[in-house]
Amino acid sequence: MKMEIEDYSKKIIIWPHPEVVEDLAQLRQKAPLTHCITNVVVTNFTANVLLAAGASPAMVVTIEEVADFVHIAHALLINVGTVTTFDAEVMLKAAATAHQTNTPWVLDPVAVGALEFRTSVVEKLMRYNPTVIRGNASEILALSGFGGGGKGVDATASSLAALPAALQLAERSGAVVALSGEVDYITDGKEIITIPGGHEIMTKVTGTGCALGALIAAFLPVTGRALRAASTASVMFATAGERAFRESRGTGSFAVAFLDQLSNLGSTGE
Amino acid sequence: MKMEIEDYSKKIIIWPHPEVVEDLAQLRQKAPLTHCITNVVVTNFTANVLLAAGASPAMVVTIEEVADFVHIAHALLINVGTVTTFDAEVMLKAAATAHQTNTPWVLDPVAVGALEFRTSVVEKLMRYNPTVIRGNASEILALSGFGGGGKGVDATASSLAALPAALQLAERSGAVVALSGEVDYITDGKEIITIPGGHEIMTKVTGTGCALGALIAAFLPVTGRALRAASTASVMFATAGERAFRESRGTGSFAVAFLDQLSNLGSTGE
Amino acid sequence: MKMEIEDYSKKIIIWPHPEVVEDLAQLRQKAPLTHCITNVVVTNFTANVLLAAGASPAMVVTIEEVADFVHIAHALLINVGTVTTFDAEVMLKAAATAHQTNTPWVLDPVAVGALEFRTSVVEKLMRYNPTVIRGNASEILALSGFGGGGKGVDATASSLAALPAALQLAERSGAVVALSGEVDYITDGKEIITIPGGHEIMTKVTGTGCALGALIAAFLPVTGRALRAASTASVMFATAGERAFRESRGTGSFAVAFLDQLSNLGSTGE
Fold it and tell me: Is C251 close to B263, i.e. CB distance below 8 A?
């Protein structure tokens, strides 16, 4: 079955502003403990994004503790960006535990399809039913098996071009798929939410995508709905990104202003 | 023996300003080599805090090198925030070496009591007599065994409520205890130093507490007195934190301004 | 054979400005995929430096993937700053693969000579013919065997004092040596390029030297000449550092402004 992009145009809706405000207020009140097993490049930025938004980050990454901590945490993020032999075991145990305890969790399958080891790790992680899968066009194309089993993955594929793959992946896996790109799309295989905005400079600061995965995780226990959690987190990122760009003088001050904007979002009812 | 908070009120003193100025000048002159074995979230921020203050940070974290480097270093920090199976072995070897060479060292028992593995690692580390133990109220309560062996640890416990535990822990272990919170308390089991100031926003930037542990370590070889080292480092943090808040526009610019303020402290005699 | 510093004075040339502009334009057009196996303190800053300059950073650090990724990458950086038992194996496999595939690579031998384990790792890495070796005076002295086999390594040695060692190391190894210090020198054993400028504050922000190694790696596939790649990257760092200092208020804002300046370099033909 070949799916055409235009088939979806009528289903696309824009995420409403009032729900974002409400969700953010809830996040700040509940400060969900968000367990992040993520890559070594973005740990600090991810923790600061979660703190700026109002969540409580915690990185617990050793095999002896990971299951216990999934029991304590309200949500889990697994990002395979710099996965090692040891991390893989930790991630699988975390995902298995989350599956067992019904802890909502986000899978960020960084560079899946491009390297064998992580592809096999991601395939195993998929068995534990991630609540949300967040990735760029290439990753979603690879993971969905679109375009011939991950071959021909195009790092420059647009998010719109990967939308059919996102829909199919969501339908098949039962996960909500958050597809990042110039425009973000979020889908459960039926509804499609589109998040315009943001700014291209976000691709010039490491970890913005990875940190979005963490923030989606933080919103999962707050909203109780994966589509809504991913949409609200994405709107926050797009809004903070746009505002931060206006007051930045390059990529360094953009990253700083982005955290400022996240921490100030909603404080004046905006 | 039940200890009441009011019993200590008469012993509490505020750390004097002239000693901070003197210690900071010494730190900048000596630039103590400060060996940090810390968690993956805060390595960069910790190194930048030490450099801003005037110390020389070094992270040496492999079992083959750790003992040799403790011999070279002037001070050691061990922070168990993201301890793994391998890190635990490295930390124990570092602590054993520091004990043997009389290298002053700081233990930061992140989340002790909350997870079994790190709790057992921290218990073993305690055998090597840390010079200073730095933690928040929950960690000091858990480590002291107050409130029933770590059970009922309250992450929101105030530092004042944990002061009796800090005193007992200091007395029993021989370490100076630096208890972080809205107000910082530092005690050797007899004297209690209180450090007012700082700003709540510091809890919204990851690594401020962890970096304080590192700065206390850096001051140990400079001052030669644990109570003084912990007090001076804490005053620097509170002062830089207050000043940084006044020029920040959110959590991102606060972290930047905090490093700026640390690097400028004392440069004009302030 | 004793070499005198003055012997080289006539060979020293200053890297010309037009070539930097041209190389930078090329870097931004090609966005070379730069594989970084670096220390845990500087991963984030290194990635942000590469992104600001216009390259594509990627940290792939597990034994299962490292060879495959060297095949995909345009350049490689190996920095032994926090090398562990496991990292050493990964680094050796990466270097062996780069040697085989003719992928240009930079070796940053952090603290070589000071600790046995990393010294032996660096010696093994040297067998795979790094394209560029980047280090400070102490590291270059230790690696060249000058001054008696690494003994008496002086962390405060000036870059000029280490220039004879750099020349000998370049001649013996076939690598271009990029010697960082108050003044940077770059040599292939015959020509010597000198890079004035920069600012002392760069030594107060962790990772500036490490990130320079990464940027040199990124320029290798773009320029096709190691001497030119190292020179252009060093000029960019010196220029961005000088400009950033003028708009900074301490070490925190300097790091931010440094990334801003890197991201803005060349955008107006400067």
Answer: yes
Closest C-alpha to A9, from A210, A217, A198, A192: A192
* Residue B211 and residue B51 in contact, taking contact as beta carbons nearer than 8 Å: no
Phi and psi, residue A92, nearest 5°: -65, -40
Helix (H) or strand (E) holding A211: helix A208-223
Widest distance between CA atoms in chain A: 49
Assess if residue B270 is contained within a domain: no
A267 domain residue, yes or no: no
Query: What are B125's two structure tokens?
Result: 């580390």
Task: For residue C21, give the H/E element and its range.
Answer: helix C17-30
DSSP sequence for B206-262 = TTHHHHHHHHHHHHHHHHS-HHHHHHHHHHHHHHHHHHHHHT-SSHHHHHHHHHHHH
Q: Which of C114, C205, C248 sits opposite B51 (nearest CB)?
A: C205
Which residue's structure tokens are 């002896």? A64
> Residue B85's domain is classified under what CATH number?
3.40.1190.20
What is the ipTM metric for this complex?
A: 0.92
Q: What is the CA radius of gyration of chain C?
A: 17
With residues binned 3-state (H G I as helix, E B as strand, rest as coil), the percentages for chain C, rounded to 5, are: 55, 15, 30
CB B67 within 8 A of CB B94: yes
Flag if B62 and C40 touch (Cβ within 8 Å).
Answer: no
Q: Which helix (H) or strand (E) holds A12?
A: strand A12-14
Q: Which residues contact B256 (CB under 8 A, 6 or more apart)?
A: A256, B248, C252, C253, C255, C256
Q: Pick C65's closest partner by Cβ from A115, A206, A255.
A: A115
User: What range defines the domain where residue A106 resides?
Assistant: 6-262
Which of A52, A69, A86 is the closest to B251 by Cβ?
Answer: A52
Calpha distance A269→B13 (Å, rounded)? 43
Digitized pLDDT (tens) for each residue of chain B, 270 residues in all = 344 444 555 456 666 778 899 999 999 999 999 999 999 999 999 999 999 999 999 999 999 999 999 999 999 999 999 999 999 999 999 999 999 999 999 999 999 999 999 999 999 999 999 999 999 999 999 999 865 444 333 455 788 999 999 999 999 999 999 999 988 999 999 999 999 888 999 999 999 999 999 999 999 999 999 999 999 999 999 999 999 999 999 999 999 999 999 999 986 545
- Which tokens is C21 given? 């502009």
| Overall number of domains in chain A | 1
C270 in any annotated domain: no
pLDDT digits (tens, 9 = 90+) for A147-190: 444 433 345 578 899 999 999 999 999 999 999 998 999 999 99
Quick: pLDDT tens for C213-222: 999 999 999 9
Q: Which residues of B touch C248 (CB under 8 A)?
A: 260
**C170 phi and psi, to 5 degrees?**
-65, -45
Measured between beta carbons, the chain B residues lying within 8 angstroms of A83 are none
Task: Write the pLDDT tens digit of every residue in A225-240.
Answer: 999 999 999 999 999 9
- Does residue A53 have a pLDDT over 50? yes
Beta-carbon separation of C82 and B65 below 8 A: no
Instruction: Judge whether residue A3 has pLDDT over 90.
Output: no
Domain assignment of residue B131, yes or no: yes
* Closest to C134 (Cα-Cα) out of C96, C174, C79: C79
Helical spans, DSSP H, in C102-225: 116-126, 137-144, 146-149, 163-173, 208-223
Q: What share of chain C in percent tops pLDDT 90? A: 83
Looking at the complex, report in whole angstroms how far the Cα of residue C63 sits from the nearest Cα belonging to chain A: 8
